[in-house]
Amino acid sequence: METPTGTQPDTAAARWAALMAARAVPDEILAHAPASPYRQDPERFRPAADPPETPSRRAAVAVLAASTDRTVLDVGCGAGAASLALVGEARHVVGVDPASDMLAAFVGACLEWGMPYQGVLGSWPEALADSGTADLVLCHHVGYDTDDLAAFAAGLGAAARGGVVMELHAHHPQAWLDPFWERFHGVRRPAPPSADDALAVLTELGIEPEVERWTAGPRPVEAPDVRAARVTRRLCLPPERVGEVAEALATHDGPTAPPAGRVTFSWRT
């Protein structure tokens, strides 16, 4: 496997890239997938009417309190859950996302909540040129979507005039699906990266973040049929196998959801 551009072998960045690449969906499975396993439903990421007071939100408020313009850049904004938790604290939000339906949901939420906004369709860090800089750069639950975490994190810092707040699951959020990949495809997936691996990459970049480890509250209950359909798509299986997946979920004696553990990295720029 080639390491990302500018990455040397035997570094934390190269280790991250190797761990991520090893967990890619095999080409032969992806080629026959009836729908993209990477697609997400924007409704699952809508901003909460009463956002929880998490370590990530507290760190973000602290950065904004020390700034003048109180502008926010939300990288991988989804439907705006991270940045719109700062209504009343932020004055303007720029959302960046590579998925047009997610960006449309972000725009709709900003209009609904009366938040001045700009939407940028694109991937990070390539979208840096179009998004500009902000007092605060947020990045929630996007780190496990990039192989080149070093370039990704360096871009976050380059865009931040005041500080960065990055939130991750403590362990790869899709690792709980590994037994189902083996059950339905005979694919044994290797150990995933964790937030500790991400911290090693940040440290290698010369970033010394504040680190807070915490546990998220439960997500809204999802109807079993909706959940089974989502997992079926994630496993690259056709819709007619939803029943099999539902049965597998119901009888599985291990985790059947992403872990509740979270880690917040925050640093000033």
Structure write-up:
The structure is a single chain. The chain has 269 residues and is α/β, with parallel strands linked by helices. Helices cover 35% and strands 17% of the residues. It is built from 10 helices and 7 strands. α6 links the parallel β4 and β5 (160-169). α1 (12-22) runs antiparallel to α8.
List strands and helices in order, with pairings:
Elements: H1 12-22, H2 27-31, H3 55-65, E1 71-75, E2 92-97, H4 100-113, E3 117-121, H5 128-131, E4 134-140, H6 149-159, E5 160-169, H7 178-185, H8 195-204, E6 210-215, H9 224-234, H10 242-251, E7 261-268
Parallel strand pairs: 1-2, 1-4, 2-3, 4-5
Antiparallel strand pairs: 5-7, 6-7
Helix pairs in contact: 1-8, 9-10
Summarize the structure.
This protein is of the alpha/beta class and 269 residues long. The protein is built from ten helices and seven strands.
What is the number of strand segments?
7
Helix residue percentage = 25-40%
The major β-sheet equals: 7 strands, mixed
**Widest sheet: strand order?**
3-2-1-4-5-7-6
Number of separate helices? 10
Q: Structural class of the secondary structure composition?
A: alpha/beta
Series of secondary-structure elements, N-terminal to C-terminal: HHHEEHEHEHEHHEHHE
Please tell me the overall pLDDT.
Answer: 94
Q: Over the alpha carbons, how many angstroms does the gyration radius reach?
A: 19 Å
Low-confidence stretches: none
Overall 3D form: globular
Q: Provide the β-strand percentage band.
A: 15-25%
Q: What's the end-to-end separation, in Å? A: 33 Å
